[in-house]
Amino acid sequence: MWLRTLRLENFRNYERLELELSSSLNTFFGPNGSGKTSILEAVSFLAVARSLRGSGDSEVARWGEAGFGVGGEIVSDGPARSITLRYAKGGTKDVTVDGEPLAKLSNLVGVLRVAWFCPEDTWITKGGPAARRKLVDLTLCQIDRPYLAALSNYRRALRQRNEALLAWTPDEESERVVEVWTDRLIEYGSRVVATRLTMLPRFSEAVSRFQKLVAGGDELTLRYKGSVALDAGRGGAPAEGPPSDAALDEDLVAERFRDALERRGDEERRRGYTVVGPHRDDLEVLLNGRVLRSFGSQGQHRTAAIALKLGEAAVLDTDGHGVVVLLDDILSELDDRRAGALVELVGGHGQALLTSTRPMPDGVVGGEPAASFRVEAGEVVRQ
Ligand SMILES: Nc1ncnc2c1ncn2[C@@H]1O[C@H](COP(=O)(O)OP(=O)(O)OP(=O)(O)O)[C@@H](O)[C@H]1O
Ligand SMILES: [Mg+2]
Questions:
Q1: By alpha-carbon position, which residue is closest to atom 31 of ligand 1?
Q2: What is the dotted CATH code of the domain comprising 124-292?
């Protein structure tokens, strides 16, 4: 699946734009403020009906205009599909697929899948566990509907259980309420953890492969650091190393989760919140066996975050449906060798759109049939 044409109308600094894209790598070069990121942002509207740059719809409409439009043609196994999205300020956002209006914007999800990567994403490896849990959750939610349901039920159970723990007094009624939510927490939480662990080997394998291709010798590995010990025995320490096959079993996770909650029951009642569960878990990123977060250089973080994002794209593409990779301004902190390897890699993998203020290093082609565009103040010219 790839995007063959992209049309913009009154979108950011573009009054009108129509592009024919390549099915492999498309690079957009141009000075700061010329309109490169805006092109990727427009693609994100076709995929998820909103800006993956994080802007509100009204900020996207060209200054002085009452709205904007984005259109595109998607090529996949079947007949090509066309998407149009129109936004009118103060009004509505309408999407049509093959001319048919969509009743709900969420029905658009899946027609065009994208993985967006920008410089701020280095927080995936630099920041706390929340950023990494978010990456895992967003990836799984796009491809696994039962996971999405389990995760939202888990969050609800967690909220209710925390309220019950906060209000807890040493009597039967209080205890009964906590127990009701404990059962729910375990039911959904063990599904969340088991699904994450099932996906992990595929994700980890893809991430190490991409890391090797981009950075050469460095070994990048992922390790699920659960707040519930999943290895054999009843030690309270977090699980270390890759979980055994048995740990992927939901029932076993549930059993361990219950043990952990029982062990820390007094502490939870004292503190008034839930101290173990998938909401406290981490996905550790290790470079050559060391936790990258604590020592990585700027470029090492950048490279690792790219490998994680490409791994995400590979997991999103498990069913072979294809995913468009959007890489915004990621070459700036990579040396020429890494930048070249990355460009060759994404070009050979599927469709990618990449922005940069500097031209490609010499000799970098980016797969066939790569396309290169020059962007200058809202004008785009194919080179
Ligand atoms: N709603 C809008 N209407 C018109 N112009 C806008 C609007 N929003 C942003 N711009 C302008 O559009 C231009 C394109 O922004 P964009 O972020 O796409 O640039 P860029 O090429 O990615 O730049 P950089 O290399 O600095 O990241 C900028 O000059 C910006 O000031
Ligand atoms: Mg930009």
A1: 33
A2: 1.20.1050.90
